[in-house]
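Collaborator request, handled under Task 6.
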Amino acid sequence: MSVLALVEKLFPFNYSITGSGNDQAIAQYINELNFSVHEYASGQSLNGWFIPHAWQVNKASIYQNGQLIFDAKKSPFGLASLSPSFSGELSLNELQQHLTSCENLPDAMLYQWQNLYRPKEMTWAISMPHQQRINLSNVSYQVEIETELSASTMKVLDFLLPGKNKETIIINGHNCHPFQANDDISGCAVAIRVLQALISQNNAKQTKQKYSYRIIIAPELHGPMFWLNEMDSKQQALLKGCILLKSVGNTAAMRLQRSYLGDRILDQAAQSAFEQQYGNFSQGEFRTIYGNDETVFEAPPYNIPTISLTRWPFNEYHSNLDTPDTLSEQHLQDSVDLVLNIINHYENNSIKDVRLHVENKCSSPVVLPVEVTTKLNQRYKRNFNGLVCLSAYGLYKSIPQVSKTGVDYDSIHGRWNKLMNCLPREIEDNMTVNDLAKKYNLSGEEIHQYLSLWVEHGLLLLK
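Structure tokens returned to the collaborator:
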């Protein structure tokens, strides 16, 4: 079976963090590999994150003068995930504040995910084709939304291929986006084909790889964080790296996002594999190309070097247009070959991880008042383990608008978002406010104010 055929097999399910779609899909995954299934009850919390209950839409309708003009229930993309029930009459302006569409994809229905990751900011939202949205009349509308929640469990699929050494590399794909093939069923399918290829190699050679390899397929953020949290420190210490496969089936060039440190053996193996396979290629530092589960695996105390492989951005991203027929078997197989190439370089790499220390120096020292100097020289100590749900504390810094070329992380909003995501590791590195201001080209006073909020919430302690 081709990689694309596997995508088609895993695609037609109404995935989320919990719910019947994920449950129904499990048999298809287990038919490919004998996955262990870890279950985590809905309602559990961790660092401000909550595993949501299973969510069901009973009604999601917009009426004008008593006539139904839009039935959002007809599409799994019609109503934003976890939208609460609502009934009321709204003006056009009020309604528009709850509608989403895309001018560049006028026929698309958009995937609305925000409620899943911002539990204190939940609201209802309806997606409709852009042309229909802009043609709405300036009259009043009646909105009727009926949804319900029920207890469920989040499933994390886990397959381990033991090697001669128990030190393990994780290969990760997420399965929480409903009916979206590239994001990220492509990553799940490629991960499965990679492990099947390794198993075949082992059987042919009657031997094992030097290292162990482990697939984790789970809802993004929630799945890996709860899975890691239940491990003891000895198990965590065996996890030496992670390869994230995120949207790897379209026809764009493959891009490499390096780990937080950027110079680990896994980074070096990926660099060699990319050069061998492509010659010239695009790469970026941690959180400068694609944002996903790398912040979970790299969060202290885990500090697992994590690289991302992605062909993002792509036009159909987060919409009902992200279907298997937009993917390329050639590029999916290329993704499989690339991961196997990275593994081969990792297996044969005798270079040890050597941390590069770069000292930040001002070209022209400035004499500052004592009070300001004290703020800028302030250091902090982490008072949490794992990834924190920053929106739960009012600490979330949104990314800039996504364009056809991705996200501009050099903009001020991009730099703040990158600082936010890297901050736990920067604190581990004992960086001062001034160090952070220099690295991210941001105001030291504003960074100090931001970190003071972390202190107020008990997430950081003053050193």
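The cover message to the collaborator said: "The longest strand covers residues 54-64. Confidence is low (pLDDT under 50) at residues 356-368. Please let us know whether this matches your experimental observations."
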